[in-house]
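Review form for a predicted model. The reviewer records the input and the model, then writes brief findings.
Reviewer: anonymous (R2)
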Amino acid sequence: MMIFLLVTLLIIGFCLFGILYILRQLWKQTFLQQNKVLRWLVTVIILVLIGIGIRFDYVNTFIVLLHVIIIWFIIDGLRHLIGKIKHQTIKTYWTAIITLILCFSYLGYGYYQAHHVITTHYTIKTSKSIDKNLRIVQISDSHIGATFHAEGFKKHMQTIQSLHPDLIVVTGDYVDDDTTRKDMLASTKALGQIKSTYGTYFVYGNHDKGYMNYRNFSAQDLEASLKENNIHILNDESVQIAKHITVVGRQDAQTASNRKSAQALMQSIDSKQYVIMLDHEPTDYINEANSHPDLVLSGHTHGGQMFPIGITGELSGANDMTYGIKTMEDTTFIVNSGISDWAIKFKTGGAKAEMGVIDIEK
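Model under review:
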C-alpha cells in the first residue's frame, strides 16, 4: 500500500511539474506575450479542461497528461537539438503541434485496442486419452462497466456461443468495484445462458470480491448469482468433467491468504487425466510446472496494458509471463490479455482485448 501511495504521489508531482513547464513554454510564444488577456485565457482553459477530466475520470486524465508531458519533453528536446545542429531557432509551437498529433494517434490506437475485442486461437496437441477434441473458450478480466456494460457483455457472449465451445472458463476479475448490481446480474445471466458440452467454470480474481466496499452488491451476491446461473465456482477445488478431463481452480494469489499449493491440488488427481488449471495471476509457474497439470490458464496482466507496464511486471517478478503461450516441463501456460480493462481505457505496446479459444487435439 505504501508503494502504491508513493508511486501515486510521484505521478501527481510529475504531472504538476509537466503542466507548469508546458504553460511556461507557451507563455514565451510571441502572440501570447503580447496579449496578457489571451495568455491567461489559454491558461485557464487548459486548467479547466484538466479539472473537468479529473472530476469525471481522474485515472484516464492522468494517463493522457502523462503521455502529453512525456512526449512534449521528448519533442522539445529534439527541437533544441535540431536547432543547435542547424544554428537556427525552431518555434515552440512545433513542439505543441507534433505532441498533440502523436498523443492523439497513439492514444486513439490504444483506445481502439481496448474496445475492439478479437478472438485469439491456440491449438495444443496431447497424447492423453481424451474422448474427443476439446474446445475451451477463455474469458478473463471483463471488469464489467469499464469498457462495456451488460449489453456489450451479452454481445460478446453471442460471439462465444458461435464458436461452439465444449468448455467455458472465466479466469478472474469478472467484475470490479465500479460494476453495478444491475450489470452484474444481467451479465451473469448472459454468461449462464451459453450452451456448451461441459459447462462454465469460474475462479476469482483480485478485483471480484471488491476493494473499496462502495459498490451496491456484495461478494455474497456475486456468488449467489453465479450459482443461480449454473456457473461452477472453483476455490482450490477440482472437478472431473469427463472421463479423462479434470478442471482445477485456484484461489487468487493476491487476495487469498490460505490458498492451497499446486502440488496439494494435484495430489489426488490421476496422472492419466488431462488437467486444466485455472489461476487468475500468472505468478506460480515453477510450482505449477512441478505439479504437472497439462494446461494452466491465467489473465490479470491485461497483456501489459500500456507500455512499459508489461516489461516492469516481469522484471520485478510480479508476473512470470505477461502474455501469450509457453511450455515448462510438460505444462503449457497461456496468459490471456483480457476481454476488457480495469479503469484504464487504453491498451498500447501490443496489448489487445481478446477472448481466447484453445483447441485441445488428440
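Findings: The longest strand covers residues 117-125.
Further findings: The CA atoms of residues 283 and 320 lie 5 Å apart.
Recommendation: see findings above.
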